[in-house]
């Protein structure tokens, strides 16, 4: 047979393959278990939950109270600090006023002091006075 003749031959038809039989799944290994005859009560669980809730609320209340108390104490301390700061500024102003040359001259005059007419020096090695000051009038 030639190649052309072989090409003209009808292709072979394929017969449907037989399908394998579907196997039934094996029976489940699980089985139903019945509840125990004596059921547990939920009262202890509920009591524990209520206790935890009560402790949480009480701790939140105590924490809030402590924070408010600390805020009042802080407010008082800030007020005291501002008063002390103002007192310090007042005392510094008074000191500046009293240490001014005019105030010092008035205070010296009240004590009976007079201004010096001249200056002199004391030699420390032998204790002698150099250029003695003149007497004031």
Could you characterize the architecture of this molecule?
There is one protein chain. The protein has a two-stranded antiparallel ribbon. With 137 residues, it is mainly α. The mean pLDDT is 85. The protein is elongated and about 155 Å long. The protein contains three helices and two strands, in the order H-H-H-E-E.
Helical content (DSSP H or I, runs of 4+)? 40-55%
Could you tell me the mean pLDDT?
85
* Amino- and carboxy-terminal Cα gap: 163 Å
C-alpha geometry: elongated
Quaternary structure annotation: single chain
Radius of gyration: 56 Å
Please give the count of helices.
3
* SSE series: HHHEE
Main beta sheet strand tally, sense and closure: 2 strands, antiparallel
In terms of DSSP E residues, the strand content is under 5%
The neighbouring-strand order within the major sheet is 1-2
- Flag low-confidence runs: none
DSSP, total strands: 2
Task: Give a brief outline of the structure.
With 137 residues, the chain is mainly α.
How are the elements arranged and paired?
Layout: H1 3-8, H2 43-98, H3 101-110, E1 121-122, E2 129-130
Antiparallel strand pairs: 1-2
Keywords summarizing the entry:
single chain; 137 residues; mainly alpha; 3 helices; 2 strands; elongated
